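Figure caption, in words: inputs first, then the predicted bound structure.
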Amino acid sequence: MAEDKKRIFSGMQPSGLITLGNYLGALNNWTKLQDDYDCLYCIVDMHAITVRQDPAKLRKQSRDLLTQYLAVGLDPEKNTIYYQSHVSQHAELGWILNCFTYMGELNRMTQFKDKCAKHADNINAGLYTYPSLMAADILLYQADLVPVGEDQRQHLELTRDIAQRFNGVYGDVFTVPEGYISKVGAKIMALQEPERKMSKSDENKNNTILLMDEPAVIMNKMKRAMTDSENEVRFAPEKPGISNLLGIYCAVTDTKMADAEREFANVGYGTFKTAVGEAVVAQLEPIQKRVHEIEADKAYLDAVIKNGAEKANYIATRTLSKVQKKVGFPPRIR
Ligand code: TRP
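Bound structure (tryptophan present):
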């Protein structure tokens, strides 16, 4: 790993199946960073259990997520791709950082409040201290940049505050990370409720297109996507449904918005939706084919898992040892 490259860290929860939104908003951009940055992409299974998970399902989703990372083109030689639970330093640093995080700060986290409302029967301490574990994820690797969406900005701010607080007491231990705002990434909205983000945990399946959806399913979901009472394909704030479909079209075909508007200037919504659906299918089909190929190669996947954990472990150990020394834990006798 070249020392002169800036380091990027990001994580994704294996708490559901990857959507077109995850792909266009995050994964697809990650593949463009792999030559210029030293990137770590963590599958954050420890974060996932802050809400109740079915163990077999969680295990499968974690493997599926890894497979999909590889299928979209993330190269495990260039990036460090690994499961959070395979690197116990996350939990260890998470504990230490808990002792440098104030309850007042955690109380202000909007995602915590949202999740409390959604999972009122299981408001556990892990859900509460989720942000200090996330800070540990990032700070363990001395990441310079963290590509995150709007919904994670508050957590990243807190990570910076924790890093600065710790550094203020012990000297320069942690790199204070910054958000990485991609110039290209598209924000994809829910198909039937385009005022909110497409999310893998959405209960309405017609709101999301999954990376692994079959062509017929994609076309059908497209057909049911919300439009409006006009019959004009153009990008406008008062037309969230059509604008979202245009955004999807532009992202998958690499077309400029003005060109797309021109292309669909004289067609009805039905024809437009079919064109968007077909463009999405064309983009996803080769990825799906690769997913099946990779899935079949157990030895390869296992090697990726093992190597990823080893690479991450190596960097994490360096930071954790330094932190343990700084806070005053006694040295190990070897
Ligand atoms: N909290 C993030 C989410 O829900 C996932 C995550 C965990 C993460 N640790 C991270 C993202 C570190 C970026 C960096 O989407």
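The two ends are 29 Å apart (CA to CA).
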